[in-house]
Amino acid sequence: MLVRKLLQTRRTDAELPPEIRAALVDSLFAPIASLIVGAIACTIIGAAVAIRAEDGTIMATSLAILVVGMVRVASAVLYKRGKRIQDLEATRLWERVYELGAWAFSALLGALCFLTLDHTDDATLHLAVSTTAAGYAAAISGRNAARPIIAVGQLTLTTLPLAVALLIYPDWVHKALGIVVLMFIYGMVDITLSIRDIIIQALTVTRKEAALAARFEEQANRFDVALNNMSHGLCMLDQQDRLQVWNERFLELLRLEGREVREGMSIRELVRSSVRAGNHAGKGVRAVLRDLTRGLQQDSFGQVFISLDGERTIALSRRVMTDGGSVVILEDITERKRAQERITRLARFDELTGLANRAQFRERLEAMLAAARRSETQIAIHLIDLDRFKSVNDTLGHPIGDKLLQAVALRLGEVVRRSDLIARFGGDEFVVVQADTHRRRDAGWLALRIVRALEDPFEIDGHRIDIGASIGVALAPRDGTDADQLLKKADMALYAAKNAGGGGHRFFAAAMESDAQQRRALELDLRQAVAGEAFELHFQPLVNLATGRITTCEALLRWHHPTRGAVPPSVFIPIAEETGLIIGIGEWALRRACEEAARWPDGVKVAVNLSPVQFRDRNLAAHVVSALARSGLPAHRLELEITERVLLEESEATTHAIQQFRTLGVSLSLDDFGTGYSSLNYLRKFPFAKIKIDQSFIRDVDCEAEGRAIIRAVAGLGTSLGITVVAEGLETKQQMAFVREDGCHEGQGYLFGRPMPAAEVSERIRGAIARPLLVA
Length: 776
Hints:
With 776 residues, the chain is of the alpha/beta class. The protein folds into 4 domains: 2-209, no CATH class; 233-338, PAS domain (Beta-Lactamase, 2-Layer Sandwich), CATH 3.30.450; 349-508, Reverse transcriptase/Diguanylate cyclase domain (Alpha-Beta Plaits), CATH 3.30.70.270; 521-770, Alpha-Beta Barrel (TIM Barrel). The chain contains 28 helices and 22 strands.
């Protein structure tokens, strides 16, 4: 039974928490004085026995007892000194050190008892060693009960040799004492194990209580930290609405000092302190209490908003607890409220100009239409698009463009009445809704005033900016009563105004709707043509006026519709540019032109026109490289023609593309020269190899001296700059003679050939090699 209990104790020891095991080991070394007393006492008894018995073996045993005792005392001192830096492994080591020392000391004491009883017949000595062993065993049971393996080992090693010596002694008295000692061993082992269980239970309970107390303290600290680091203010009130708990944020929101707030103060006292702190925008205590009472009912979880100082807004909410008290939460919602106001404004107003946005425009337009129906008046919708605004953004940058839009909004506000509505739809598109318009002429006068107001130059950050405006006007109820319908018709009128050159206004007319429908149908057909590559290239030659040789052939796009027949480029090219289809069409034309030119003699170039819209395509240069690579046409035989409209919309993308063309070795030609207002500046900035004088200067060259003077000046300028000058639109030999005499280098026109299919122009090129086209 005891053996099983001892083994169970061994297993339990292995499962003890480290801190308890360390405490038990600490108890072994704790009474150093008892170790010293035990070592000295046992040594003295041993020495006395050895001297009286005059036995060398007993003397040697006594000396061993003295040595082991001193070693144990020294180990206890070392343990105490190094205790603070011990870990679990060190604890186990010191336990082993104590265990070995204790067993050695006990074994030597037991050996002393056995030798004394076996080697002597002196009853006094027998009594001395027996009582010493019994006393030591009893002390061990109490002292080392926390470590029963050590205690039982010591008890056994000390008393078992004594019991054996008594049992083998010849007389029956000694034998009886031996039996008593065995019973003593059994009893002391049982007592030791019981004491050990009591110690373990006591340590475990103490440990649990300490851990529980530490946990409570940690939770309290965490609660305190959490409470004072909340973004919300919090306070707790008892059943009588007296303050019990609050956090730092609560004091911060109410701008209260910690000394002003105390446990047990009433809400009235708290409000009075808050009013003294400058809160509640001049209200008195009674007024504040009334507002709080109305907003925070005892039986509800409501929320009330208060303004503390006219700027900050605080939201208060109250939750009643089961014990009758309550928790009040304070939250500073100033920024949230401002953000909500900004969101609300952004939902209804244009952020840049402050004008009504599309959403508010639709809402107010519906209301104005309803009012017009009741009063039997009409309203006018002016859809405004700024002319040349994109060039401002491209040349001066978007910040200047934004300031220009703000300046436009201010001018519109100066022109229209306060009862009218101004809105911005985005980009450079504005809308003015003119209320109570009794006559169509009134709408016309307002549109004219808007155009004139926006024609005046703007001064933005030191820049003089000249723009204009095109306006489309739709009238309600004449043109419709639905907002979407009216905007659509105003947009049709705007399209007509811009097609007329811009800088003016147009009223919606029924014919515009028909034109828009036809244009839409044409756009759909154009998309199908792009998908099916239903286009054809014709080529018109350019001739050297000195030799009569064909130097270049210009590629011209043609579209033959299955039902519409031949659709002029002047009709479908603008639609392609507006819809962006021109990018795909231009890529196809470039590829086909290079493929055809690759079959021509080496001295003949091909010229391909580029639209301004194509320069917005970042892959334009890549398309050129691809067309040259696939056709095998050398880059110097490709000529790209651009108009002044491309340069008027000069942007970083345009400049970059032109630089890439120059790097590739592709030459540039400026078409329709003389029709823009800054052509000379373009010649200085860009690497043009050729300029083409517009045919409007050639048409009357034989009868207008001014026209010839312009041609002569341009030709002289081109020659001095090393640029080839081409006269467009030559139809007669006399025109050819004049432009050649004035210094033009090349000519193009019906005189040398109309635009012709690829096969025909190829034959014409080969024929011109044998017989020049120029007739003297």
